[in-house]
Amino acid sequence: MQTLGHFINGQMLADDTRRQAIFNPATGEASRELVLASRETVEQAIAAAEAAFPAWRDTPPLKRARVMFRFKELLEQNADKIAALIGEEHGKISHDALGELQRGIENVEYACGAPELLKGEHSKNVGPNIDSWSEFQPLGVVAGITPFNFPVMVPLWMMPMALVCGNCFVLKPSERDPSSTLYIAQLLQEAGLPDGVLNLVNGDKEAVDTLLTDSRVKAVSFVGSTPIAEYIYATATANGKRCQALGGAKNHAIVMPDADMDNAVNQLLGAAFGSSGERCMALSVAVAVGDAAADSLIEKMTAAMAGLKVGACNDSSNDFGPVITRLHQEKVVGYINSAEAQGAKIVVDGRDVTVPGYENGFFVGGTLIDQVTPEMQSYQEEIFGPVLQVMRVNSMQEAMDLINAHEYGNGTCIFTRDGEAARYFSDNIQVGMVGINVPLPVPVAYHSFGGWKRSLFGDLHAYGPDAVRFYTKRKTITQRWPSAGVREGAQFAFPS
Amino acid sequence: MQTLGHFINGQMLADDTRRQAIFNPATGEASRELVLASRETVEQAIAAAEAAFPAWRDTPPLKRARVMFRFKELLEQNADKIAALIGEEHGKISHDALGELQRGIENVEYACGAPELLKGEHSKNVGPNIDSWSEFQPLGVVAGITPFNFPVMVPLWMMPMALVCGNCFVLKPSERDPSSTLYIAQLLQEAGLPDGVLNLVNGDKEAVDTLLTDSRVKAVSFVGSTPIAEYIYATATANGKRCQALGGAKNHAIVMPDADMDNAVNQLLGAAFGSSGERCMALSVAVAVGDAAADSLIEKMTAAMAGLKVGACNDSSNDFGPVITRLHQEKVVGYINSAEAQGAKIVVDGRDVTVPGYENGFFVGGTLIDQVTPEMQSYQEEIFGPVLQVMRVNSMQEAMDLINAHEYGNGTCIFTRDGEAARYFSDNIQVGMVGINVPLPVPVAYHSFGGWKRSLFGDLHAYGPDAVRFYTKRKTITQRWPSAGVREGAQFAFPS
Amino acid sequence: MQTLGHFINGQMLADDTRRQAIFNPATGEASRELVLASRETVEQAIAAAEAAFPAWRDTPPLKRARVMFRFKELLEQNADKIAALIGEEHGKISHDALGELQRGIENVEYACGAPELLKGEHSKNVGPNIDSWSEFQPLGVVAGITPFNFPVMVPLWMMPMALVCGNCFVLKPSERDPSSTLYIAQLLQEAGLPDGVLNLVNGDKEAVDTLLTDSRVKAVSFVGSTPIAEYIYATATANGKRCQALGGAKNHAIVMPDADMDNAVNQLLGAAFGSSGERCMALSVAVAVGDAAADSLIEKMTAAMAGLKVGACNDSSNDFGPVITRLHQEKVVGYINSAEAQGAKIVVDGRDVTVPGYENGFFVGGTLIDQVTPEMQSYQEEIFGPVLQVMRVNSMQEAMDLINAHEYGNGTCIFTRDGEAARYFSDNIQVGMVGINVPLPVPVAYHSFGGWKRSLFGDLHAYGPDAVRFYTKRKTITQRWPSAGVREGAQFAFPS
Amino acid sequence: MQTLGHFINGQMLADDTRRQAIFNPATGEASRELVLASRETVEQAIAAAEAAFPAWRDTPPLKRARVMFRFKELLEQNADKIAALIGEEHGKISHDALGELQRGIENVEYACGAPELLKGEHSKNVGPNIDSWSEFQPLGVVAGITPFNFPVMVPLWMMPMALVCGNCFVLKPSERDPSSTLYIAQLLQEAGLPDGVLNLVNGDKEAVDTLLTDSRVKAVSFVGSTPIAEYIYATATANGKRCQALGGAKNHAIVMPDADMDNAVNQLLGAAFGSSGERCMALSVAVAVGDAAADSLIEKMTAAMAGLKVGACNDSSNDFGPVITRLHQEKVVGYINSAEAQGAKIVVDGRDVTVPGYENGFFVGGTLIDQVTPEMQSYQEEIFGPVLQVMRVNSMQEAMDLINAHEYGNGTCIFTRDGEAARYFSDNIQVGMVGINVPLPVPVAYHSFGGWKRSLFGDLHAYGPDAVRFYTKRKTITQRWPSAGVREGAQFAFPS
């Protein structure tokens, strides 16, 4: 069985003694073994990053960006391999893995614009013959801690921008599916990154806590669940660092009576079940305004779900794959059970799905639940599985009140064709990423990603323009040259 | 004796039972009495702010900016009164108080540009017929906690920008000199701010802790000493808030052998002793490169200091006034004593200064200390008094190593006429605000203020462009209109 | 009778011999006499501006902006006087004149943000130890030539931004109604502008041609009719200047079947007849999609127009006043006659309106014409009078084709509640300023004003962000300091 | 002999009857034959561009940028072939041609950032519930006319930015060396550009005039000599187009007495003689302040020039090659003769250089002339050859007065180590591109290129941020949704 270690200072290392299995969620079997970093190993990675910093800091942004141009080429050339690595450990279908990679590449493309993005502000004559300007300088060593559900995309939200800003990086990817992450780290090195500028450590809480408390780490970016995000934010900041910690979600779609229902169903299908619902932007709740809309939605959705195909990653005719672990499979099924127990109606039931040839896989079938109400546990918590819950309300305001009362504020969407309804919704909804007839309103790479309320801790969002501010610190210089000595001296020295 | 209360929801309140005296530092006598807010009072202020938020949030930025246009007029019309209030409680001389006010007004002027500053980013066709844009929306209720040394300027670093961004504000000013702060809060109300949009509570740790832990407060801006800044940052963030906490400083000036020494001395004089050195940007250490430069600096500085005049705020011929409290006076003298005890040479001694007619005032005279070395306590800690310490080094690199090794990184300056030396300095010094022949490199209001290392906790600086990002959260909207119904329907409905 | 001269170098001058009468359009009588500048007088103004330039250029942007802060106060304090001066010579009603002034003041407010707006772009390390930055420097002497219909607002589109950018200005206002323009020029001087920075010359083609051909004038901003705009653009550019020339318009509103008709009629009423239709953004054509919409529009509009009141400027119950000259009155009536002759239906006829007490005034009443078709002269040309023409089409696409085929592309609007229709319209319409349910989509002062096609010649729009680029030229500086001499020399000079 | 035609709508065409020879300037022999486009052929290219516009305009900026990512790869892969094509027709040495290509590629890299660069400005609540935003939309068909001296770089200044902004392009390259230009046009097509989006026509004045007068061409970018630039600007604008026309130069370097003379000489050597001085940024005049500096400069430069090697493009040990034509060779020699006749001293004489094996080549050797004075013809006009003229002045101010009095204002440089002198120079010199110890201050691709005075006609510079504004027009949309119908209607429809 292959053993996966760390990538430190341009070298693969696997010295640590603690190990953990990596599973293929479609077969349910362990496929690789992961080395878990000790505090010393993480400190070694930090030290490598710190040593590489001075030279990387002084490398012109244009040169740093050119590493990203080459990285993009390598990612594109090795797309199939990356998708396969994702599929083997995460379980998502190849088309979905390629989609994930593509969204990641968009962040690499954005980072190619570093020379433009890093421009400072220059003010001539802030006073008589006094100039002042602000530069955006790198922080030093920064760290990223990333989740299992996007082993390639989320690291690519962080690393490219952190690196082109001039920082050195230590990445701790998910211990569930680190192979694809490790592979792209090596591609980045191959693209021309100097040794030590990027380091990857595999590990668990020991690695995380080392990153959070070591004073050489200046900033931490995290994506994961809200309880962990909260711990990361409190710990990193208590250690004097800047931190952005992205947490969980409960994304609602409002379906208005004037919505194009066929389109809405089609959009919801992918947004609810794609990647088994294991996306922080998955649309897991549909709020229908009026019973007519609700009935139509249930009817058309039920029909559409009949065509959903669940299975292993390597058959691209599948719509989605298994969930990440046996434990998580049981948790998702538990939420469906609880909804049923609390009075909801299971319209399409995915609890007992079996996939021929993959009988031990961690599969849950697409599930549709009607008549969900706010007090249900399945509504209050994040399921992170292929489950779409439908709620029924009497007005758009009631639907918005539901959303605004929820603890999360990551993404949301409205289906309507009415300009006024759309504007009222986007203006007044307490959610950071809003879709108008767009069910997964993930901002493109040149905007920034982030939720509101307990979906994000920190003041700057992930990737895009905010990443420049997060990964740099401002230095403001004020300059006056006091006397004309040399300039006028010349005149005295050489009289005509 | 006048009693100072709180300003909540457009009303003055003084219900709390705990009281504390305010002193005139020039006379050493208590002059007013301050009401200290209880938790309930602070919660009342927060509630008022929260109630005012929806309407203020929806007020167009142009209208919010117009309150600032009027506020600027009122501040200018009442400048003398404001300066007098500052002088009576802080002790700074009228010209210095007017200077403080002027720097504050510059922040009001900047806030007048809110409509421009709040522009979001709009992207057409992020996909076919899909548009996306980001808006910068206010946070809700935000709080400011401000220090005694700039009772008008530092609140004006925070309030104008927070307000024009659409937030409601709760300010807790210093308990040493709150009268001028309270007065400008009332002027802001007079300028047209609706009730509850700005609230001011006087108080101590109870008030501070309420602001830090109440979940309705979304962001905290703080300026003060580093230990408190660290506490504020850790506590506010542990409570899920965004926070920027500005702390202490130890600002060095490098005096190069090619510097125009007369100019350097003239600049240092104001930068070291102005406002009794009670500025986080005060230049408290001069590092002379080479003994020739050091000897010349000591000689010319000694001569210049002979003309320094210390006294009460109302005589504008004075250069600076008392320090803030008896306790602080003793602390400053203690630092001078310790330097002497550790081997430094007291060249000009301000320990025993007396001001006729103000024999009980908290005065310390301008003090010049030579041969200061890095291990001395007076070097390692922030004195915050009218004391200039001189260090001697053999090279510019040695001087820079000193600065980079210090825990603070607020401001610094180099005196030289050499372009290369200036650029090397500004590039490699680990300090956030850098002066080239500018001893107090406070960024102008349209740049942002912030130090590095333990001088600032957080990722965004105070005022200027960073304030827009700190006081707003990003909302990103992605929009697609799915079908041509109405547009093409018209064609079907009315055939030619 | 009062004689109006020029304002040059801070002085009023009236040396020229050629004179021309200024009329009160409500009475039809000459009320003042205008001095027409000779070439020599204009050259004197240019020379004054050129002499004032070096000092004004070197005045920090913050100080230049403060002149605008004071100018805003003076404009607000003297609003009634300004409105009266506009009314006496232009004829517009006081509420309309105050509205014009308010829109002008918004441009003054925007100019107060000059320090932010003039920031250059700074790039550290464009190569190893090489920095580069761009500054936006003033051009020198620039000129504005402005129309009669907004004697205060259009000069305020130009002067504030040109001045805060550091330029000196020569303004040639309309010879029909120069009094209010001259008055605000004097207020600007009172606000603290140094002599010569702003100069105003009254005159005709001789003045215009001098400004267009004198090599000391670096840029020309013009607003007027398209034939003149074309002449201005060709002549100014042939003389090597930069130029922006805004011309005529024919602004259409599409009324969709799903529009809120009462709202549409209410909006159209002001947009078509306000200021007697003498606005380049006046909505002069309503294109109804489908006969049902057209019939409803005609019916409701006819009813609404019954309440329109035409009269003199000083009665604020009037809705609009006379047109600017006898000649123009005849021209407007001529267009109505031609429409009738070419087969259109005059639904409401304003040709024979009389205003008691003002029988000699240049009045035209509100006129509504139905069944207008593209080949009619009244459709092809700009009427610039209180005339609303209605066209009937069968589809939204047909309406858009009409608009896109017209030679002008200034403003346009659609009335609908459908998001898809609005987006399709704004995306595909060949017009620079687009309203969605906003009949006069004049951009606010912090955006920029400009049409497409033959409505604007040049590449930068008026006021707002574009004004910064139009009134400045870019200077890019690349800097490297070649050797460490002084910095390292110090080390050699003082060995330890 | 190979015949070069046009590239229109994705096809090579060579139908025109007029032909002209292309020479190899190193051998003096005709090597290829060029087809000169008739008006009809140019109109065909414009028509192809116009037809391709709607689809290209609607292609998301991200997709347009990806063509540039691929284009960059192709340029890098084919660098040697491109350099060879440049060398054969222009004569520049391979390392110089590769340098030209590299600067061109930097513009392609900048264009890859189109999604960021094309962001519009979005303002929420310009009034109550009214939003407004500005989009930057493409112009349609735009044209570029480029010079012989950079057959690859200057087209790459224009095309990438014009194309990613959504325009279609017609390029007319120089008729002296079109092969490399034609080749990169084909690579751009290979990179994925749809047919017709880029078209290239070879030709002479007939082609140029067609582009200047055809109403379908919306904008013209030109680089060449000042008399032609002036003609282009006047003609294009008289035809209602926007235009930027870059002309000639006379770039001075000031050598201060404190300059590091070895460095200055080393820098001047490349800047004066590189590419045979046929660069609009070539440094052709050195102004020494004081005779000591002048004597030292002459002495060291004479020594350095002894090592200069002139010859054919394919020997990379050569420093520079021939000039472009026999006629131009004679013109350059004529300027040297005239300088001698007017009293200057020819220190190093390149008039009679011969290159073994290339006796018929158009070579001029490196020439150094001392004691040049302002009235000399060789000073007043642009030589565009490998000739460095030295002037002697007594003060820096005198040197600056010389520069400011010259009709051109393209580039300039100062050699000094004094911060004050550098700042005074960059502030007060009337030149658009300024170097501090940088002899060829060509702005990097993420700033913009342009001179002042008669070196540029128009208001926006070439490439970089200005290119976005030049190649787009602003559309400002103001939106209000008038009533809550659908949103509240839902409430009425479904009462609880």
Automatic annotation (TrEMBL), chains A, B, C, D:
Q: Does the keyword Oxidoreductase apply?
A: yes
The family database entries (Pfam families) matched by this protein are listed as:
Aldedh
Q: Which residues form the Aldehyde dehydrogenase domain?
A: 16-477
The top EC class is oxidoreductase
InterPro entries xrefs: Ald_DH/histidinol_DH, Ald_DH_C, Ald_DH_CS_CYS, Ald_DH_N, Aldehyde_DH_dom, MeMal-semiAld_DH
Q: Which GO terms describe its molecular function?
A: methylmalonate-semialdehyde dehydrogenase (acylating, NAD) activity
What's in the keyword line of the UniProt record?
Answer: NAD, Oxidoreductase
Q: Which domain of life is it from?
A: Bacteria
* One GO-annotated biological process of the protein: thymine catabolic process
Q: What is its EC number?
A: 1.2.1.27
**Which NCBIfam families has this protein been placed in?**
MMSDH
Name this polypeptide is given: methylmalonate-semialdehyde dehydrogenase (CoA acylating)
According to its UniProt entry, this protein's organism is Marinobacterium aestuarii
Classification lineage:
Bacteria, Pseudomonadati, Pseudomonadota, Gammaproteobacteria, Oceanospirillales
